[in-house]
């Protein structure tokens, strides 16, 4: 009868400081699910079935972000998710743009701190600019 979240559910590399952010995002998701159930009068039956897939996706997003950063180091070995090499190049291209684009820089930091959705970095304009930056390296 327990709902666990944060570090009780997933472990992260403490270097990235994601534990509290993941716990907060999962708590917000749980609050939204509970509020929806209260409005519908559905009670707590099946709460875990609704919550854990959402919580797992939040953990997966944090895990994928940190492993992407780790994968950029040539010393890191092992299997990578498909597309990781392209993602690493894209992020390198974005980083070259940060000093001249304060809005992009703020979004980049926000994504790293998990306060801004990753979609903020992958709009068409930013993707095009990052690819152009990669090609000019």
Helix and strand topology:
Layout: H1 19-40, H2 47-71, H3 84-97, H4 102-112, H5 124-135
Condensed summary:
This protein is an all-alpha fold and 137 residues long. Helix content is 61%, strand content 0%. Helix 1 packs antiparallel against helix 2 (47-71) and helix 3 crosses helix 5 (124-135).
What can you tell me about this protein's structure?
It contains five helices and no strands. Helix 3 (84-97) packs across helix 5. The mean pLDDT is 88. The chain is 61% helix and 0% strand. The protein has helices at residues 19-40, 47-71, 84-97, 102-112, 124-135. With 137 residues, it is mostly helical. The relative contact order is 0.11.
What key attributes describe this structure?
137 residues; mainly alpha
Mean pLDDT metric: 88
* Number of DSSP strand runs: 0
Described by the principal axes of the CA atoms, the overall outline is elongated
Helix fraction? 55-70%
Structural class: mainly alpha
Distance between the termini: 55 Å
Radius of gyration: 18 Å
Order of helices and strands: HHHHH
Q: Give a short account of the largest sheet.
A: none
Share of β-strand residues: under 5%
Number of helices: 5
| Sequence stretches where pLDDT stays below 50 over 5 or more residues | none
């Amino acid at each position: 009868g327990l709902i666990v979240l944060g570090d009780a559910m997933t472990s992260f590399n403490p270097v990235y400081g994601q534990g509290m952010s993941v716990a907060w995002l999962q708590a917000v998701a749980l609050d939204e699910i509970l509020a929806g159930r209260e409005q519908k009068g559905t009670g707590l039956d099946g709460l875990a079935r609704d919550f854990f897939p959402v919580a797992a996706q939040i953990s997966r997003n944090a895990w994928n972000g940190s492993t992407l950063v780790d994968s950029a180091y040539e010393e890191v070995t092992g299997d990578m998710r498909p597309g990781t090499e392209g993602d690493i190049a894209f992020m390198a291209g974005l980083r070259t743009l940060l000093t001249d684009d304060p809005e992009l820089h703020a979004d980049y930091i926000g994504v790293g701190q998990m306060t801004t959705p990753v979609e903020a970095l992958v709009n068409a304009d930013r993707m095009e600019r990052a690819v152009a930056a990669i090609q000019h390296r």
